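README, section 4: Worked example with a bound small molecule

Sections 1 through 3 covered apo chains. Here we extend the same pipeline to holo records, where the ligand is supplied as SMILES alongside the sequence. The molecule in this example is zinc ion. Nothing else about the input changes; the structure line simply encodes the ligand pose together with the chain.
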Amino acid sequence: MVDVKEVAHKVYRLEAPVPGVNTIFAVYLIQESEGVLIEPGPTAAIPSIQEGMKQLGMEDLTYIIPTHIHIDHAGGIGTLAQLFPGAKVVVHPRGVKHAADPSRLIESTRTVFGADFEALFGPIVPVPESQLKVPEDGEIISINGRELQIIYAPGHAPHHMVIFDHSVNGLFCGEALGLPGSSNIIFPLPAVAPPSFDQELYLETIERLRQLGAQMLFYSHGGVELETDVLISMAAENTRTFGDIILKALKEGETLEAISRRIGDHVASHYGLEVNEMDLALIIAGYSFYFKKKGLA
Ligand SMILES: [Zn+2]
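The generated complex, written as structure tokens:
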């Protein structure tokens, strides 16, 4: 039974767990005169979405909006496009060709999640070009007077964007403001995925999004949070500090295990918490790739 909760006026959140993957996949439905789906997640999430829609009496979708095209946010868009042929799938210009022809996306998904990723996440299929909509930076999608503003938010990936819902002052932030994690204490980690993480852009995006003055953050791998300014500051600070620690360690020729321990010690001493090893490995790999690309390490 899917638990659908109204988290802001006409904004409904549900979690679509993917068996075998220890991450929160939060999906958001906006129920105006038309239905909007934000952060569809992988294909494996679709049955939960359909059940949530049924509970809400929502029969159709007008817009399907992933924040970016990584499989955990958008793996299901092609299958959803088939199920809802009247819907537009809104994708950043840097991601749109991969949505129409996901062959390269599938290849890179295999390198990150293994050759048999489909067994967990479900397949990635193309979105028909006629259903794709490429928004401009700042473009407003208006539904029954409700304004959803699309804002480009590069750093985690070049094809990342966020959605600012003016009617509730809430931001669907994807991975642009850190990875909140699933513990009770939230300390957003830098959301780093090799090979396209760019620390400089990530920090610039964080500061630009802070200016929106959002009063609510709708996380994709977490819940809905109201302490927006504190969380945004923490995301920026962690992004800088992790970068400093990793760059210093790389320059000193440390092994990945040693770097991992340094980060682990930092988080333990600052927050009294543990970071899971898979997240740490991804963070270190992403930063290393970035620093090498910049010629810094
Ligand atoms: Zn991602």
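What to look for in the output: The longest strand covers residues 146-152. The radius of gyration is 18 Å.

Section 5 describes how to batch many such records.
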